[in-house]
Amino acid sequence: MLVEIADKEFAEQRLQEVTESLTRGMYVQARRQLHNLPAWDVALLLESSPPKARAIIWQLVDADEHGDILEELSEEVQKSIIRQMAPEKLAAATEGMDTDDLAYVLRGLPEQVYQEVLKSMDEQDRHRAEQALSYAEETAGSMMNTDTITLRPDVTIDVVLRYLRLKGELPEATDKLYVVSREDKFIGEIGITRLLTVDPSRLVSDVMDQEVQGIPADMDETEVAKLFERQDWISAPVIDEDNRLLGRITIDDVVDIIREDAQHSMLSMAGLDDDEDTFAPVWTSAKRRSVWLGVNLITALLAAMVSSLFEDILAQMAILAILNTIVPSMGGIAGSQTLTLVIRGMALGHIGASNQRWLIGKELAIGALNGVIWALLIAAVVAIWKQDLLIGAIIAFAMMANLLAAGLAGVTVPLILKKFDIDPALAGGVILTTVTDVVGIFAFLGTATLLLS
Amino acid sequence: MLVEIADKEFAEQRLQEVTESLTRGMYVQARRQLHNLPAWDVALLLESSPPKARAIIWQLVDADEHGDILEELSEEVQKSIIRQMAPEKLAAATEGMDTDDLAYVLRGLPEQVYQEVLKSMDEQDRHRAEQALSYAEETAGSMMNTDTITLRPDVTIDVVLRYLRLKGELPEATDKLYVVSREDKFIGEIGITRLLTVDPSRLVSDVMDQEVQGIPADMDETEVAKLFERQDWISAPVIDEDNRLLGRITIDDVVDIIREDAQHSMLSMAGLDDDEDTFAPVWTSAKRRSVWLGVNLITALLAAMVSSLFEDILAQMAILAILNTIVPSMGGIAGSQTLTLVIRGMALGHIGASNQRWLIGKELAIGALNGVIWALLIAAVVAIWKQDLLIGAIIAFAMMANLLAAGLAGVTVPLILKKFDIDPALAGGVILTTVTDVVGIFAFLGTATLLLS
């Protein structure tokens, strides 16, 4: 298929055309247009469509394209589609799928459907599926494919070359061949480019790279991704606890993990799921998001209760009520800047026991520095706006205190959460806001009560 | 070098050891320990260290490791280090660097130092550097390397194989050889694995894949990354406007772009720079972050001014002052959930003219649904806590109104910003908060004024 690089708009235009045919109800035309789209584009179209349109598009797509398209879909959308497919159609669609994709699809099925799909598969696929499902989700085992090419150490490169020529096509992203013993133990690897440049009369065991270790099948996928990034790998072997070669992981699957992991923090900080589907039905989305709103309502009520402690002075001076939101809001912003940096730093492995103290010191210093600047400014604004120097001084003090608290909480909250194995990206923001709200209100209204009443 | 996979803690332990030697001032020992660390780990150590420690580590590292380490560093940290290096040392460090990394380093230099470094380079490197710098930042041209292997169409595969064997080692991540005409025009490519499996007596022109187009040198790096993800490429050719082959892009550089792009939104939403260095000096960090705090102070003041319009009723009833923060806060949370999803959807190319209206409808429906739930709940809480049914009803109405506003603004604000070519991740949050603050306060205090005064 011709790759349309020079004309990016061309691809967008084709997608637009399908959408138009669909909205006009011209399904025959839409079917033909869909037939001409690569699987990747159909997947994009499905992910960009509301639930009803998704069901229609899926019915218009050629059944023998189903497998390729399913492979390209994100988890949420994939799930919503396979739940509507008949088991035997699903079994047909998964035929010839990469092992890792196959496991991914099967994991999304309810137990009963899963059994039916398994029954509809041929012997070989069923075996492959059962094996793939034996590894835990989000591990090296669940990412791997079994399409490795293996060599014995005691043959010559010439034999290998003839074997490959006989074989015809090699699996995609094959940059290395793996050398295994008679017991299938992984003992080394040879790069494809090395095969081309080395003297063909040499033995595999002479030429292979023995300093490589396989990836244990139970390694976490995020760790696998880090190794790939660090070593600039294109593929890597996966082994079991006895060092037996099980399969290989390729860079294209790793890229997905890297993008997902990087997005994870952003979504978590808004209380959203990694696989949150922008076009999910209203009810599904509302239910998910309400949890987060509930948590935040408790925070807001807590802040209101703190304000409530100062009801007397608020009743005396409306100006305090008006200014009461400024200091908590600035603290929340400053704190979330620190929090975001610390969460990213943790993900990159930059923050450890050796530099935590330095980091707290630094963030406190930034809080102090910015505290002084914005305290002076807000004091000036209030003094001019409300003609009240004392209240200006009070809000300046509160600002200073809260920006210091924000810096401290911004570093310590995620560190403490991590110690308790709680995801700082998910819970950090709420706790931080609670801290900056409470400190901000206490510092402002408390000082005001002391000095003004 | 042995890749220590099985023992992840081993790597961490070694890093810990260096840190300990450094803090104890045992520099001879630290130098030896650093010497045994791979470049990637030294880079990690530098990125995890405060400015002073960075300078010390850099002096302890072998000078001939400098180049490899610089390549692994993030932009900010790299800049802070090369600014302190003497031009001739820098020239030595960049010797043999990949073209894209070389351009990256040189771009970070002040004009005068840059000229001096250029002078200290040998002829070949200088030429390479000048060529690499001729492409704009963040384009395919600035990402590419010039280490391509090119073939003529009219030779046999056998000749190619003999040529490669003569050449010895091939550049890393070489999965394809490129076929060019006598005028250096790109006409096709052959996968390395294909070379191994095809009949050696055939001509390159018979075997090559002609349906591939090169990537134009001025294509944006984010577009390049999308193409790689979409096509599962490991490398791809880069061409100029006359279709002449300039070089190639490899997946390891693309992975960096994918991670950076995915992190970009998260950092922007907190008003942080993409290259924000967690361990930068206090002054640098404070200066950068204060801009964002300033913008948010304006938002907070705006909210205070809106409250100020209702000074009369606030003076009469302190309870309104206490509850005044709840509705804006919930609106901010709901709005930022929608905003986050829309920003991600835009980055993935899911949101276009065809589904915007559906999305606004959906988010309004979610706002209504969650609005009802949390309106009823907050009404009940207020009715019980403050024994005031009417104020419960007022806050319920304001909650409803603000969650609808949040849903609407969460979709429309980023869409409008994008139309004006403003980064929604950077500016979206501030504008959204302003909307939910203003609507929240107006709805609550305004209704209270109408009904209670």
TrEMBL record, chains A, B:
How does the protein's chain sit in the membrane according to the entry? Multi-pass membrane protein
> What keywords appear on the UniProt entry?
CBS domain, Cell membrane, Magnesium, Membrane, Metal-binding, Transmembrane, Transmembrane helix, Transport
- Give any GO molecular function from the UniProt entry: magnesium ion transmembrane transporter activity
CBS domain mapped to chain residues: 144-207, 208-266
Q: Which Pfam families match?
A: CBS, MgtE, MgtE_N
Report TM segments.
Answer: 291-310, 316-343, 364-385, 391-417, 429-452
- Give the location in the cell: Cell membrane; Membrane
Which CDD domains does its entry note? CBS_pair_Mg_transporter (cd04606)
Q: Specify the superkingdom.
A: Bacteria
> In the UniProt record, which is one GO cellular component term?
plasma membrane
Self-association and partners: Homodimer.
Please give the function described in this protein's UniProt entry. Answer: Acts as a magnesium transporter.
What family is reported?
Answer: Belongs to the SLC41A transporter family.
Name of the protein this chain belongs to = Magnesium transporter MgtE
